[in-house]
Structures are given as structure tokens and as C-alpha cells.
Amino acid sequence: MKIAQIAPQWLEVPPQAYGGTEYVVSLLTEELVRRGHDVTLFATANSKTKAKLVPIWNKGLFNDNITKNAFAVFGIMYKEFFNIQEKFDIVHDHCDYYFTPATDFISAPVVSTFHNMLPEESIILYKKYPRVNYVAISHNQKKFGPGVNIVKTIHHGIPLEKYQFNNNPEDYILWISNITTDKGLSEAIEIIQKTDEKLIISGPIFRENKDFFEMRIKPFIDGKRIQFVGETDFEKKIELMKNAKALLFPIFRRQEPFGLVVIEAMACGTPVIAANTGSMPELIEHGKTGFLVNSDEEAVDAIKNIGKISRKYCRKHVAKKFSLTRMVNNYERLYKKLLNA
Q1: Which of 34, 36, 246, 324 fits 157 for a cystine, CB–CB 3.0-4.6 Å?
Q2: Across the strands, what pairs with 40?
């Protein structure tokens, strides 16, 4: 098949450090190329791929600090795409609502994966474009899009061989994500303060979140019991994950649509303690690959019992349910189904 993969312009593909959507786009693109498909990737100029790259902007908009003018860059992408759109059998969009208005002018079937939450204004927009074949990344996410043409739920998948397993972790708890107000970092610190555990924090601080970090997080970082190691690249992320005795993911205040770091941690053998909300019940087997909790107190109890979790079973769980092969198989079947129709 001749497939267009439309990546968001926020970061390069794959991302040098943080960037869940861009990482998934890279994994999908490279595996489709390996399977013999003719894939064209619309992404930033500093992206690295074995597909045909159509460069849109020199580097990610987050790095260029021009997010206020993002629609201009996406407009450039529209132009580059429409210049060659007739060559594609399938168009796969990963830009959420940024690319949706262009789909009325695309002759090939369009698949659009939702990588983020579905606010009401986005749902209204998606309903106005019913010929787009939307894909949810969790069953929980799909529930928030009633009336939207969500044709399939496809969980993310990762290449297990890139995640080193460790059955003998060090003595610390890990929190790793984008540092924002709604990713559970404040809650993680509150939980750790009720224990004798050490917490390591890792993640990027984008401009809009600097005040939150300075005012709400930094005062608790003492370099000993609570440490901040900054943003990490892939290799350092794996080191942190495989050596942690647990990943703490207490996102109580929003419906997390997936949570890629959850399956990444489990792939390393690291169990996860997560809020019992959003997609977490789909990713975590309570009592087997971690614990689903409803409060700080339950999280504290979970930390005390984390040694009961089999790290080998955590990895087997990811291999069975969240492999890269399974994810790409699902997308490939969907492409073929749409073409046959």
C-alpha cells in the first residue's frame, strides 16, 4: 500500500526525548516500511526515517518556541500534502483537530488516530467530518466521543527488544512524564512524603509550565529523598525505568487516554501504581502488574506491597497485549478493510 503518515509538527519523529505521539508515529512508520509498504512521512526536517520524508518545518515547534503560530506551519503541511495527495492509497493523520478540516479535500480513505483527550469542542468538530475513520487508543477514550465515527480502538504497542528487563531493581520510585499540572506530579510527591521512599522525577518543562514547576514542585526537591534529573533521552529513560522498583502514575484529575510510560515501565519489569481512572484499568492488571488506587492512602499501601508483584509477569503482560506487532497488525488490517470497502 502507498501510505501517508501525517505527523504533528510539535517535535521531530522520533523525538529525541519526550514525545509519546511522535514515538508511536515513528514505530508505526518504520514497521510499515519494513513490511514492504510505500510510506511517506510528513514531519519536521530533522526527523529520521526509512520512509520517504516530506520536511515541513526545520525542527519541532516546541523547540522553535513558535507554538502561537502553529496553524501557519500546519498550513504549509497542507500545501505539501495536496501537491502529491493523488499518489496515496491511505492517509493516516496523527494531528488531532489540526488536520481534520483538510480531510474534505482528500480522495483516499483517511484514518485519524486520537492521541489526546477529547474535549467537547473537538467532538463537535469531528462529528462534522463523518467520512474520517477515527481510531481511539483506549476503550475509555472512545466513551468520550459519542456520535463520532470511531471505527476501531487500537492500543499502542512497543518493540519489547528495546526495553531491558531487570529483576533486581534499586531502591527508588519513579515518576516520569511531561511536567504539567494534570499529570499527577504534585500527587506523587504527596504520596512519597507519607512513606520512607525515595522519588526520582524526570520530564521536560515546557515554557507554559515553568511557573508550576518553580512554585509547586521545586520547593520539595532536596536532591536526596526527592530528586529531579531533568528530561531524559531514550537510553536514560530505560535506565531509570528498569532500575525503579515501581512507577508512580497518580493521575486522578483527568481521564488519561493511554499512558505510554505505563507499558514501557512494565516492559522493563517495573510494576505501576496508578490512579484507577482513564485507560489505566485497560493497561494494568490489578495485583499482577501493579495496583490501581483511588486515593493517596491506597497508593501508600500499594508501595508497601509492591514486592509482591512479579516483574517477569509484567514483561509477559506487555509482550502479550501491547507488542508493536499487534499494534501494526491492527492498523494494517484497518487500512486493507477501508481499501476493500
Answers
A1: 324
A2: 4, 52
The total of structural domains in the chain comes to 2
Spatial separation of the C-alpha atoms in residues 332 and 165, rounded to whole Å: 29
Domain carrying residue 257 = 160-321
Which stretches of 8-127 are DSSP H helices? 20-34, 61-64, 70-84, 120-127
Check whether residue 304 and residue 164 sit in a common domain: yes
What CATH number does residue 39 fall under? 3.40.50.2000
Q: Which residues contact 60 (CB under 8 A, 6 or more apart)?
A: 9, 10, 11, 12, 15, 44, 46
Which of 17, 15, 6 lies closest to 59 in space, CA to CA?
15
Check whether residue 186 and residue 236 sit in a common domain: yes
**In this structure, are 294 and 307 located in the same domain?**
yes
Pair 327, 232 in one domain: no
pLDDT digits (tens, 9 = 90+) for 269-282: 999 999 999 999 99
Same domain for 308 and 207: yes
Identify the residue whose cell numbers are 506491597. 305
| Residue 37 CB coordination number (10 Å) | 17
* 208 shares its domain with 234: yes
Write down the pTM of the prediction.
0.95
- Best CA proximity match to 296, nearest among 264, 256, 253: 253
- Sheet of 90-93: strands edge to edge? 52-55, 38-43, 2-6, 90-93, 110-113, 133-136, 150-153
Same domain, 327 and 313: no
User: How does the average pLDDT of the chain come out, rounded?
Assistant: 95
* pLDDT tens by residue, 14-61: 998 877 999 999 999 999 999 999 999 999 999 999 999 999 999 888
Q: At 238, is the secondary structure helix, strand, or coil?
A: helix
Taking the alpha carbons of 144, 130, 158, 260 in that order, is the dihedral positive or negative?
negative
Which residues contact residue 243 at a Cβ distance below 8 angstroms, ignoring those fewer than 6 apart?
166, 169, 170, 172
Q: Are 109 and 25 members of one domain?
A: yes
